[in-house]
Amino acid sequence: MGDSHRALTVSEAAAAAGVSTHTLRYYERAGLLDHVERGPSGRRRYGPQDLGAIEFILRLRNTGMPIGEIRKYADLVRAGAGNERARLGLLEDHRDKIVASLAEQRAHLAAIEKKIQIYAELLGVKPTSTVRTP
């Protein structure tokens, strides 16, 4: 991204984050992002702090946190100091959901790996890939 302190246009910020401009505008309208600065022309200008917030929002979304919960978190952050316990609780609850989901996915993967092994043995071939589960 070159100069990390240079404000980016919505298109540049979207490209840097790997999302569409529509997504960034939606996140702003949905109250997930603080007010994004605007240049003299009225166009959005995303700074490093905005990009960090977008990255965290995407991590929360990609791990299944609903928009409403992300909005609660963003509102707490916007409110400033004094609500860190609430932020911690919200993130711990989400972490626990992710951990449960990972355990469920590992169980599904183990069943699929077992079935692959059965077919490979039946055919007398070596499976093309074996995934190691932690």
From TrEMBL:
Keywords: DNA-binding. SMART domains: HTH_MERR (SM00422). It comes from the Bacteria. Gene3D superfamilies: 1.10.1660.10. InterPro entries: DNA-bd_dom_put_sf (IPR009061), MerR-type_HTH_dom (IPR000551), MerR_fam (IPR047057). Transmembrane segments: none annotated. This is MerR family transcriptional regulator. It comes from Allokutzneria oryzae.
